[in-house]
Write a structure and sequence with these properties.
36% helix; alpha/beta; 8-stranded mixed sheet; globular; Rossmann fold
Length: 325
């Protein structure tokens, strides 16, 4: 059995994170990066969201990968061959990739996540299940820049980016990340989950569920900011708001999440404060939804050639395999 390697490229800097958070709070349109969702409680709340009836992306993507397993496997082998490396972006628990290591006949698995500590237990378990696969954990915040250590991937590899997380990036930033994914594939391919454009009546409940789990997830960001910057947000003074904005982009709309002040209030932190009018919002997340032609155009702009696509019967979600041009 191979021994798992761990490479920590991202070193968390509490002062830098606090400065970034304060800068967002002081902007003319107050905002907070989605990465501030994911403290330990936020991560558990998101796992709960994926189990909700209203939240279709996780189960729909899994159903596509299962229903089209043979065709996707053949396409992956055609793109990168057997015995290739998989680079899993935002690997987390590694559960999605674990189901593919055997069918794809991979020899090396590179799990990329912001925290090595979050990957350790998952990779130890994965190594037991797949002793012949070389496993590497890379701690990296790829939302800023996606680049791996020299020599880690030298032959065509499969970059795996499931879960529709590409939707958190506006189109220009999405192209930039896709281009970097092409570069680290070393002439290989990208297997990506993409949430497709659909009626607001389907989209909005996925981000504003009846149980209020997504609201708790959004509000927990304020608790995280209180610890990070020393602010005094009172969660009872804020409410979760989510809606589909069809005018956000000419080819793709987006779901937006905000936190809205229930009343006029002030928030203080060491060295600063902000006054919020009743109804004023903090913008916490965008989730872009794409048409197939629009997202395929982004892939081509990023340097990919042939694109193969599999969807569910309703056309709600797509799994795309894009080969480097």
């Amino acid at each position: 059995m191979h021994e798992t390697r761990f490479i920590q490229l991202h070193v968390p800097d509490a002062a830098q994170l606090a400065a970034e958070a304060v800068q967002g709070l002081q902007a003319s349109q107050a905002h907070a990066s989605p990465k501030f969702f994911y403290d330990p409680l936020g991560s558990r709340l998101f796992d709960a969201i994926t189990q909700l009836d209203e939240y279709y992306p996780t189960r729909t993507e899994a159903a596509i990968l299962s229903a089209h397993a043979a065709a996707i496997t053949d396409a992956v082998h055609g793109a990168v061959g057997a015995g290739a490396t998989m680079i899993d972006l935002g690997a987390g628990s590694c559960e999605k990739a674990a189901r593919l290591l055997g069918p794809f006949q991979l020899e090396r698995y590179v799990a990329v996540d912001i925290s090595i500590d979050f990957l350790r237990q998952a990779l130890v378990q994965l190594q037991r299940q797949h002793p012949a696969v070389q496993t590497v954990g890379v701690g990296l915040d790829f939302s800023s820049r996606l680049a791996l250590p020299a020599g880690l991937v030298e032959s065509p590899a499969l970059v795996f980016y499931p879960g529709s997380s590409i939707g958190n990036f506006a189109p220009p930033a999405a192209v930039q990340l896709l281009r970097q994914a092409r570069d680290i594939s070393a002439g290989g391919a990208l297997l990506i989950g993409v949430d497709l454009l659909k009626p607001a009546a389907v989209l909005e409940p996925a981000y504003d569920d009846a149980l209020g789990v997504t609201a708790a997830f959004n509000l927990n960001l304020l608790r995280h900011l209180n610890r990070l910057v020393g602010s005094n947000f009172d969660l009872r003074q804020w409410q979760h708001v989510a809606f589909f904005n069809a005018d956000a982009d000419v080819s793709a709309g987006r779901v937006e999440m905000h936190l809205q002040a229930r009343q006029a209030l002030s928030v203080q932190w060491p060295g600063g404060e902000r006054h919020f009018a009743a109804g004023e919002r903090i913008h916490t997340e965008n989730a872009y939804k794409w048409t197939r032609p629009h997202f395929e155009a982004l892939l081509h702009e990023a340097g990919f050639g042939r694109v193969q696509t599999w969807t569910d019967p309703q056309g709600w979600f797509a799994v795309m395999l894009a080969q480097a041009a």
